[in-house]
Batch of 2 targets.
Target 1
Amino acid sequence: MDAGRLRHRIDLEERVVTRDTEGGEIVSWVLWAAAVPAEVAPASGKEMMVGGAELGQVTTRIVIRWRPGVVPTMRAIHRQTIFEEESSTIYNIVAQLPDPETGRVSITLLCNTGANNG
């Protein structure tokens, strides 16, 4: 795998569900891996109407080196600094695809963002 492709850094978070005193679910996100080298590339986008509001949704492909334990219930956070201002994008992982040759060189994460943030 060409290391030059992996010029972005993402954090991977895993979803943790706990119960409150009344039995309701509390969803929180816990850092699973920090500053993972990645290639973040938008693949497509669309606009839709939800509840009378117009929302945009972007489908993104994120490629990382293979690592055990990455599952589609996680999410990826891509933080960028542009003109000294930091912004973050939360990507919901929809599917995870191993590399086609060995299955242990890279993982392609098919993600979307815009409709919700995890």
Target 2
Amino acid sequence: MSEQYHNVNDLRFLNQMGKLTPDEFSAWLGPDEVVSCEEAPSPRKYRELSTLGAAVSTQCPCYIEAQVENANGAGVSRERISESVLIPAALQTAVHRMVLKFFEQWQ
């Protein structure tokens, strides 16, 4: 097992995935194109904050790191970044309780 779960050098595997499955990889990149689109109706800052919230929900270190970098590049403040991650974190906590509720519905 690796000593370090998150290693920025592991991003090289994305290039390999793109070569192995180009159509699927292109579809996977689709949301990034939506976020970075300059002609979108909402400001890029807001789209970056939304994406950062999704990154926190997935709890993927690579995704979180990339989205923080993108948000910073879009001019998002440290305060807005903090706020945007606390909201999904709080909702995620609430969602865990619903698992057993849904389970009971199928009993």
